[in-house]
């Protein structure tokens, strides 16, 4: 016995069905019966609604109704017993919005005249504040005008796929032509998505959508414009096979594939419990219904209650159809509610269909589960390709158990395709980079790893701001069968640095080095540009014969972070380096010269003059100091040996003299 689970979150087993009874004709009138049933819990409540005009009352075939009477009624508990009707539960009969019988039973209902009613509603009533399963059966006897063209009967769904349906029927009389119209369930006749006239009592309808409810209306054509009322044949198309890779089911309310799971209660013992969930058959159970946190993630899990049945099970939980490629593994989690009451199950596979007899391949052997915490299981599916169904089967004759749960059923690749390593140059000022852009991988479910720098990784994003140098990061794709590692190499550069702007004060015809004026960190390999923008071969040059100021630029680019620019202002004063031996301040002398450290400036007045010490590049190494006596001692002990320039200035005169430290 197979039950396709179509409304997964109405936590009662609810069915509404009708059957046609015998039809008797006399004096252009016919009498027939139509039955309606519903099963559920009395406190939910369970309801039957019958609409007499254009609704689900169809025994009259659209003809005027002369009378309606309740010809039979039953309201019983889960054991088929009506003994407690009126004490534990009862039923309300409502006609066109008004209650005409409250807390009634069969004796109150049978024979009640409903002639003229438009809407007839029977609703269960909980009378003892305890939830009981109830079953309702309502039979209506209807007298109506006999149609001149009888409606077809006995509509049957012969075959259905994800895109087509084959249906057949029996002629209502002697007609040999039928008009068939179809559309989504509940469509208004005349507004369907397709129509066809056929001369045999069957039709194959293509072009349907997967997992969709359709109504197929069949009208008898009795000739000369005489047509019958329509026979409605409801059809639910099958689910289309979905790619197995990346399929993941957590049984939550927003799951896109939940309606495509099916439940097979092969031994037919499944039924709603007093607690609102199905017993002895697979169901989708939430934490609230069970009264405890039983889902691994979210609120719902697939579960089967088996307690007190001594192992009398034969129940299947069947996945939607999935397409395998020969490289998949299925992972899922399972647990039981009590380790003292273990459950057994196995995993089966079908390549033909989703009936119990189709599951002939065992892909996970019978397992006795006693773990109260969820445990991961993996099933290797790499031996299969094409469309398959997979079933979690609780077989007959096993453990009594209590509650077995399956959650988070996901399909992944078995052996991942190897990724391609990559490398990239990055600048610290980029802030973050996406490691996924560095490598080539078919997968997005891997994990980036670098134990020393893990705190800088967020998903696939790497914070490069604190780094400088070359680093490697591993992208690890782990599957149920193996793992693959792809390496990203990141070369991280500091921003290009041309140094800090500087100033050179110099004389005409003096050899200077522009680098000597820059401060801070300076990257080598850049280019100096003259004031006219032309590149210079070197940072060394002679100042020439003109006094004035010019700006020289240094631009350096490491090829990753973009260029950086600094500049040096060269201030050429009114002095000539080639004439420094001439006496400007005739009485000034430097002695001893050469010197080992200390020397004296002599021959100057005691006021009005200052001196400063520069290297041959014009960079000041001793800031300007005032000459306070005719003899001033200068100490160069702490500087390197070489040639230095002593600039004496004051009273609108200036002299630059050389001294050698050795």
TrEMBL record:
Residues making up the signal peptide according to the UniProt record: 1-28
Residues of the Fibronectin type-III domain: 151-240
Keyword terms: Signal
Gene3D superfamilies, per database record: 2.60.120.200, Immunoglobulins (2.60.40.10)
Pfam family, one: fn3
GO molecular function: hydrolase activity, hydrolyzing O-glycosyl compounds
Chain coiled-coil ranges: none
GO biological process, one term: carbohydrate metabolic process
CDD domains named in the record: FN3
SMART domains noted in UniProt: FN3
Family matches, as NCBIfam families: choice_anch_J, Por_Secre_tail
Protein name stated in the entry: Choice-of-anchor J domain-containing protein
Protein's organism: Taishania pollutisoli
């Amino acid at each position: 016995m197979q039950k396709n689970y179509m409304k997964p979150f109405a936590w009662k087993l609810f069915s509404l069905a009708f059957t046609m009874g015998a039809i008797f004709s006399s004096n252009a009138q016919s009498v027939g019966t139509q039955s309606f049933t519903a099963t559920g819990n009395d406190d939910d409540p369970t309801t039957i609604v019958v609409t007499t005009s254009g609704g689900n009352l169809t025994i009259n075939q659209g003809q005027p109704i002369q009378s309606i009477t309740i010809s039979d009624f039953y309201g019983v508990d889960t054991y088929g017993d009506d003994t407690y009707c009126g004490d534990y539960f009862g039923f309300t009969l409502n006609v066109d919005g008004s209650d005409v019988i409250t807390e009634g039973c069969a004796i109150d209902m049978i024979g009640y005249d409903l002639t003229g009613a438009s809407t007839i509603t029977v609703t269960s009533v909980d009378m003892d504040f305890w939830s009981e399963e109830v079953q309702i059966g309502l039979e209506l006897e209807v007298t109506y005008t006999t149609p001149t063209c009888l409606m077809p009967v006995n509509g049957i769904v012969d075959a259905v796929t994800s895109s087509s349906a084959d249906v057949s029927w029996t002629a209502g009389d002697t007609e040999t032509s039928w008009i068939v119209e179809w559309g989504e369930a509940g469509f208004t006749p005349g507004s369907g998505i397709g129509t066809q006239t056929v001369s045999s009592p069957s039709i194959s309808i293509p072009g349907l959508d997967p997992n969709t409810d359709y109504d197929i209306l069949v009208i008898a054509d009795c000739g000369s414009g005489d047509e019958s009322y329509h026979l409605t044949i409801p059809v639910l198309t099958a689910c289309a096979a979905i790619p197995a890779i990346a399929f993941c089911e957590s049984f939550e309310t927003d799951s896109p594939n939940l309606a495509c799971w099916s439940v097979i209660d092969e031994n037919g013992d499944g039924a709603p419990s007093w607690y609102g969930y199905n017993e002895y058959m697979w169901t989708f159970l939430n934490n609230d219904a069970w009264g405890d946190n039983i889902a691994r993630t979210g609120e719902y899990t697939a579960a089967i209650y088996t307690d007190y049945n001594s192992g009398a099970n034969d129940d299947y939980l069947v996945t939607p159809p999935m397409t395998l490629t020969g490289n998949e593994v299925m992972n899922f989690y399972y647990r039981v509610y009590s380790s003292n009451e273990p459950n057994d199950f196995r995993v089966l596979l079908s390549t033909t269909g989703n009936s119990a007899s189709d599951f002939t391949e065992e892909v996970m052997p019978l397992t006795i589960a006693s773990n109260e915490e969820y445990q991961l299981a993996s099933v290797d599916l790499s031996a299969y390709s094409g469309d398959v169904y997979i079933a979690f089967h609780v077989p007959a004759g096993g453990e009594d158990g209590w509650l077995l749960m399956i959650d988070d059923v996901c399909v992944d690749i078995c052996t991942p395709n190897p990724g391609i390593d990559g490398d990239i140059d990055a600048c610290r000022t980029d802030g973050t980079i996406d490691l996924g852009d560095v490598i080539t991988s078919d997968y997005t479910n891997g994990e980036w790893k670098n134990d020393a720098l893990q705190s800088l990784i967020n998903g696939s994003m790497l914070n490069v701001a604190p780094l400088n140098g070359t680093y490697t990061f591993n992208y690890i794709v782990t599957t149920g069968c193996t793992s693959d590692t792809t390496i990203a190499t990141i070369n991280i550069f500091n921003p290009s640095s041309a140094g800090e702007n500087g100033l050179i004060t110099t004389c005409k015809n003096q050899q200077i080095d522009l680098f000597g004026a820059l401060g801070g960190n300076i990257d080598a390999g850049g280019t100096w540009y003259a004031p006219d923008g032309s590149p210079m071969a070197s940072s060394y040059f002679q100042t020439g014969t003109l006094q004035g100021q010019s700006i020289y630029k240094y631009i350096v680019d490491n090829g990753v972070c973009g260029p950086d620019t600094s500049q040096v202002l060269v201030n050429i004063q009114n002095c000539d380096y080639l004439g420094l031996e001439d006496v400007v301040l005739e009485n000034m002398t430097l002695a001893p010269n050469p010197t080992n450290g200390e020397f004296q400036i002599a021959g100057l007045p005691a006021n009005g003059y200052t001196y400063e010490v520069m290297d041959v590049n014009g960079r000041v190494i001793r800031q300007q100091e005032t000459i306070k006596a005719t003899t001033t001692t200068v100490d160069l002990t702490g500087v390197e040996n070489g040639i230095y320039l002593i600039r004496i200035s004051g009273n609108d005169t200036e002299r630059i003299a050389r001294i050698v430290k050795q």
